[in-house]
Write a structure and sequence with these properties.
Layout (H helix, E strand, L loop, with lengths): L3 E5 L2 E5 L4 E4 L14 E6 L2 H4 L5 E5 L5 H4 L2 H4 L7 E3 L1 H11 L10 E3 L5 E4 L2 E7 L8 E6 L4 E4 L18 H6 L6 E5 L12 H13 L5 E4 L5 H14 L2 E5 L1 H12 L23 E5 L9 H6 L13 E4 L8 H13 L3 E4 L15 H11 L3 E5 L3 H13 L4 E2 L7 E3 L5 E3 L7 E3 L1 H8 L1
Parallel strand pairs: 2-5, 5-6, 6-7, 11-12, 12-18, 13-15, 13-16, 14-15, 16-17, 18-19
Antiparallel strand pairs: 1-2, 3-4, 4-22, 8-9, 9-10, 10-11, 20-21
């Protein structure tokens, strides 16, 4: 649920504007175990809403929901141009298509590697590997200091959807003496390097080769790299692949329209899949987090209109369990096993069937060494992840580490410090706003 603000000389730049799903407005903890859950939650933008005239623009680094999903509901509070790359721009256009603001939103498509001015900020766009096309890191320069904003990333030399990771542009940043590096901390506690999407493709191939009946793979709907890998697996194993779930179909369509889907990889229509021999079927379904209304949930409940699953079929979870979803996933797994299906979850698989899009300890170590910022500002994670990121930066010789919380102001000039609770922050429910936009 990312929303970052960079300020200089009474001007502001927003980086990302995301949502989270099925969450409370307050944190769930031992004192509040039964907090009400809302379908769609966004950061409360009241601080910048009250300074709308000072907001120069919004940059979206990539097309994941936690970075772009709140814009249709919140853009009227900002009313400024949006800058992003072509794949993300198409995702955003489709989100806006059914709204009454689609014609008002100015989307400026930026080429990776470009250098543009937005108010007093000079932005260099740096391609970085993640789990979908066109992900970008940003080098933000002002008259008094500069920031390297990593967004979501990892080092991946076989990322499936983009060019292999290239360290050269990040090594060049060191010559510009960045004031700070604002860095993804999600996997900072994991040793070694992050797994490649290419490794995941090989693991999925070996897993599907062992399936006797239908192979049903569930994954995150926005993971285009995983979809391409599974289409290759289907071709190599002589199976017809179909997509069950609107988010998967939408991402496939966007990948095709923006040139990221290989022409030779074919997708079968979901209505045809029920007539094919079981051993010739590979289904990719939404619902990896146990959502009963998603495609996998409907298959488990015998309520999907296009296909039924039965004993001898295999369900493969090419995903991780997001904290908080354990009970829902366990319930779905039990339901599938009761029907006689084999269930393979990534944590128990002998093959690599899921790869995270975020940096492990060694990825972080290398990036800090290449960029050599004066200050490390860990973001995107729980407190233990931020602290682990800061310790890695310290070991790599970064002079200062600033670890803060939502609402803290990180001052980088003229002096370097954190001003605690400088901005009132919180969460807002945008579920009804989105419903009214779509109606």
């Amino acid at each position: 649920m990312n929303m970052n603000l960079y300020g200089h000389n009474n001007n502001w730049l927003m980086v990302d504007c995301g949502v989270t799903f099925r969450s409370p407005l307050d944190r769930i903890d031992d004192q509040n175990p039964s907090a009400k859950l809302f379908d769609m939650i966004a950061p409360d933008p009241v601080f910048i809403e009250n300074r709308q005239e000072s907001l120069c623009g919004i940059i979206i680094t990539h097309a994941h929901e936690d970075h772009v999903g709140a814009l249709p509901a919140l853009w009227n509070k900002f009313k400024c141009p949006i800058y992003t790359t072509k794949f993300t721009a198409e995702v955003l256009r489709r989100k806006l298509y059914m709204t009454d603001i689609a014609e008002l939103v100015k989307i400026i498509v930026v080429e990776p590697g470009s250098k543009i001015d937005i108010g007093p900020f000079t932005i260099t766009w740096l391609s970085i590997t993640h789990s979908l096309p066109d992900a970008q890191a940003l080098f933000i320069q002002t008259a008094v200091g500069s920031i390297f904003h990593t967004a979501d990333w990892k080092i991946d030399f076989n990322p499936i959807t983009d060019q292999p990771f290239n360290a050269a542009p990040f090594k060049q940043l060191a010559k510009l003496k960045p004031t700070a590096m604002v860095c993804d901390s999600t996997n900072a506690l994991r040793p070694g390097y992050s797994l490649s999407e290419g490794d995941c493709e090989l693991g999925l191939l070996r897993t599907v080769q062992q399936c006797q009946g239908r192979a049903i793979v569930t994954c995150f709907g926005s993971n285009v790299a995983r979809l391409i890998s599974l289409a290759r697996v289907a071709a190599k194993t002589g199976r017809y692949m179909t997509l069950l779930g609107r988010s998967l179909e939408n991402m496939y369509s966007i990948a095709r329209s923006t040139g990221y889907w290989p022409d030779e990889l074919k997708i079968s229509h979901r209505r045809d899949i029920g007539y094919l021999p079981k051993h010739e079927v590979l289904i990719v379904a939404t619902g990896s987090q146990g959502e009963t209304r998603a495609a996998l949930g409907r298959l488990a409940g015998d309520s999907h209109p296009d296909c039924e699953v039965e004993s001898g079929d295999t369900v493969i979870f090419s995903s991780i369990t997001i904290p908080g979803n354990e009970k829902a996933i366990d319930k779905m797994v039990e339901s599938l096993k009761t029907k006689g299906l084999t269930v393979i979850q990534s944590a128990q698989s002998k093959h690599t069937i899921h790869a995270s899009g975020h940096p492990n300890e060694h990825d972080l170590r290398d990036m800090y060494e290449w960029v050599s910022p004066k200050v490390a500002i860990p973001v995107h994670g729980e407190p233990q992840h931020l602290q682990a990121n800061a310790l890695i930066a310290q070991k790599q010789g970064v002079q200062k580490q600033l670890v803060g919380l939502n609402g803290d102001l990180f001052q980088l000039a003229p002096s370097i410090k954190i001003i605690k609770n400088a901005v009132k922050v919180g969460r807002i429910d945008i579920t009804e706003v989105n419903k009214s936009i779509k109606s």
